[in-house]
Amino acid sequence: MGEIWSFVEAGPEGIEDVSLEIIGKAAELGAQSNMGTAAVLTGWGVEEIVKEVSRYPVDKVYYIEHGELAVYDPAKHAKALHQLVEKEKPEIVLFGATYNGVDIAARLAIRTGAGLIAHVTYLGIDPTDGMLVGHVPGFGGSIVAVCKCRPGVLQIATVRPGVFEKPNPTGREAEIQRFSPELHPTDGWKVVERSVAKVVDITRAEKVIVAGMGTGGDLSLAKKLAEKLGAQLAVTRPLADLGLAPRDVQVGSTGVSLRSKIALILGVSGASHFVSGIRDVKTVISINIDRNAPIFQFSDYCVEADLFKLVPRIIEELEKEGG
Ligand SMILES: Cc1cc2nc3c(=O)[nH]c(=O)nc-3n(C[C@H](O)[C@H](O)[C@H](O)COP(=O)(O)OP(=O)(O)OC[C@H]3O[C@@H](n4cnc5c(N)ncnc54)[C@H](O)[C@@H]3O)c2cc1C
């Protein structure tokens, strides 16, 4: 019986949401196709995380443990993972499409000659041949490429965060298998200095304010409104390209997808590359000065107004009401 693996990432705040999302999906695919499932972690001294992972719906957890894996270095983590793949020969390995996930997935694909379906928004098993099928949106979501790897190779997919549901813990603990890879200090980088940037995950936010180029690049009003509403601030790509906001908060086909209850969209035209990122938002409210702006076709509430006049009024009202 082949296995479907989910590569699990964890940071200071615990297990990454997308890692749990792929574990949930792998459990579903495993049940459909009669394949076993395993979570796989690489690291050093992360027993608590390994234990926590074992409480989710997996048949087993592989813990690839080595002192050389204490600090993130994709070359070493990919080499260690490759050794376990060679030993256990899984059918499928899923990764979250995070910076580190795509980095290690690509390295593993090169090392093993695997097929890799990148940034999928759907995963299934083809009942005719038992192969993994992934959907990859293209051209801003206006087409969907249905992808499969070529037969006879390891199948890898990276999964966009926020597209699958997180599973609940099962109430039992799966078997944990430790693996000690052969690694040497010279296998990867020599870390001279390490600085960690704070990444904002807006895919889980309930309320989001999205600022577009209609703000003229001045995000102060959008930030103030977000603060008053307890919402997260997101932007369109041109604003991220200008360096006015980090790439993690860019919405759209080359950014992230929102699943919020509400999104208030300020001065965004509604290009197809953008709207693919707001499809799963429950209520979309857009403010645009142009009544023919395409964004209105994707909005539940359309407000034709100058955001520089309307947003200060909203903030004023919120301040009056005490938030
Ligand atoms: C391969 C590729 C991938 C891409 N990926 C993404 C992506 O992931 N995300 C993304 O966002 N874009 C992406 N883009 C870019 C995308 O095509 C659009 O160019 C971009 O979304 C436009 O951003 P915008 O709506 O902020 O700006 P604009 O298109 O310039 O729209 C500004 C809007 O603000 C309105 N406005 C102006 N002044 C005011 C005012 N005072 N009050 C209210 N409204 C006002 C205007 O009427 C207009 O509708 C991608 C493009 C390519 C080619």
Structure summarized in a few sentences:
The chain folds into two domains: 3-187, Rossmann fold, CATH 3.40.50.620; 202-320, TPP-binding domain (Rossmann fold).
CATH superfamily of the largest domain: HUPs
- In the residues, how many domains can be counted? 2
By secondary-structure content and strand pairing, the structural class works out as alpha/beta
Radius of gyration: 22 Å
The chain-level mean pLDDT equals: 93
How many DSSP E strands? 17
Molecular structure report:
This protein has helices at 17-33, 47-53, 74-88, 99-112, 220-229, 237-241, 272-275, 307-320; strands at 3-7, 10-11, 14-15, 36-43, 60-65, 92-96, 115-120, 122-125, 132-138, 143-147, 155-159, 175-179, 207-211, 232-235, 262-266, 283-288, 301-304. With 323 residues, it is of the alpha/beta class. It has two domains: 3-187, HUPs (Rossmann fold), CATH 3.40.50.620; 202-320, Rossmann fold. A hairpin with a 2-residue loop joins β2 and β3 (14-15). α3 packs across α4 and α5 (220-229) packs parallel to α8. The mean pLDDT is 93. Flavin-adenine dinucleotide (FAD) binds at residues 212-214, 236-238, 250-255, 267-269, 271, 273-274, 287-290, 293, 306-308.
Note the main attributes of this structure.
323 residues, alpha/beta, Rossmann fold, 2 domains, seven-stranded parallel beta sheet, five-stranded parallel beta sheet, 8 helices, 17 strands, binds flavin-adenine dinucleotide
Give the helices and strands, then pairings.
Elements: E1 3-7, E2 10-11, E3 14-15, H1 17-33, E4 36-43, H2 47-53, E5 60-65, H3 74-88, E6 92-96, H4 99-112, E7 115-120, E8 122-125, E9 132-138, E10 143-147, E11 155-159, E12 175-179, E13 207-211, H5 220-229, E14 232-235, H6 237-241, E15 262-266, H7 272-275, E16 283-288, E17 301-304, H8 307-320
Parallel strand pairs: 1-4, 1-6, 4-5, 5-12, 6-11, 7-11, 13-14, 13-15, 15-16, 16-17
Antiparallel strand pairs: 2-3, 8-9, 9-10
Helix pairs in contact: 3-4, 5-8
The structure holds flavin-adenine dinucleotide.
The site of flavin-adenine dinucleotide has 26 residues, from helix 6, helix 7, strand 16 and helix 8.
